[in-house]
Specification:
Elements: H1 23-26, H2 43-67, H3 71-92
Helix pairs in contact: 2-3
Length: 93
């Protein structure tokens, strides 16, 4: 038995060549687009908790860089803090 090239099963009532039967003939409703998946519950809250913890760790790192007079490290930590604070502001908006 060879395969048929049906554009869609909506066009097929019952194919004599391959035996395909449409969903309507089988009593099923026509295909519809599935609903968009919802974001996992708590994802936003999990991200906020992660960023708050990361912020505290970065502040401790900044203190260590300041004590060691690593000014480039201080600048990197300060930029990381700015990015963390911006993301937190956006999540809490």
């Amino acid at each position: 038995m060879s395969r048929c090239d049906h554009k869609s099963m909506a066009e097929v009532f019952a194919c004599e060549r391959c035996g395909a039967v449409s969903r309507a003939q089988q009593g099923f409703p026509p295909f519809t687009a599935p609903p968009a998946p919802a974001a996992p519950v708590g994802r936003k809250e999990q991200r906020i908790a992660f960023l708050e913890k990361k912020r505290q760790v970065t502040i401790e790192d900044l203190k260590m860089k300041t004590e060691g007079e690593d000014w480039h490290g201080c600048a990197d930590a300060a930029m990381d803090l700015r990015d963390i604070d911006n993301e937190l502001d956006g999540l809490r908006f």
